[in-house]
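Chapter review: from sequence to fold.
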Amino acid sequence: MKLIGAHSGSFHADDVFAVAALSLLHEDYKIVRSRDPKVWETCDFLVDVGGIYDHSQNKYDHHFRNGPTYDDGLPMSSIGLVWKHYGLEICDSKEIADRVCSLLIRGLDANDNGVTLSIPNKKGPEAQEISLSKTIAIMNPQDSSLADAAFEQEVLRAKLLLNAIIADSEQWINSKNEVKASLRYSLSNNLPYIEVGEGCKWQGHLLNSQGNASILYSLYPHGEKWYIRAVPSSIGKFSNRKNLPKNWGGLNDDEFSKAAGIPDGIFCHHSLFICAAHSKESAIKLINKAIAAK
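The token string follows.
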């Protein structure tokens, strides 16, 4: 059994995820939370406490002057340090480990070190986005005697998320060649859409591919249904190159089928970016009608 040490008391996302990442490598583990240096010495790994970063000693703290940073200057936290040394082993792929770092780890590092990642939109409706780090901080119990149990629950939740992001990153990488082949076929046949398989992560790959400007929609199956998704105007934007027809928006089943002129429509989102039908034939008809619409 591996003993993974961390500080006692209130927890944060970095120590939760650091322990979670190490537990993916060592299924037989025990969490030891303490601020007693004598207890630390009994641990196989020590994260986010102790004032020492030394991989040769399996110690991964960042709370000291001139602490560790990435090459671009972003300060690292305990999860960043653990991922630096074990991410490749956890993912069994440098490309996957690097993507997980980009999607998740660096954001946790930034938040723990007080680096601002987002700015509220003061011009829009009043709404506040809650971060992953904040949700974990909220889970600290009011009764400090319950902190260790709460920490262990958050580690289990972090393990689920890590595994999901690793799987998602692997799927994203595997989707690249599929999108390239589909785009090549569509351009050769003068089609305004690409067709991809279920679960394909197509958006980023398409928008980063040469010659993609003429592609307005993506066609893909999901279970026994076929979906049409408008291509975003750019990565991360909610606007589209061409919206679906306005008279489809917000309609379902028979109403949508009648408005779209197909026998098996399912729905069209009121924001006009996605719709679906039961058959591929009808889905292609929807694309052709959307292209023809003004």
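Two observations follow directly from the output. The chain has a mean pLDDT of 96. The chain has two domains: 2-114+135-169, 191-292.
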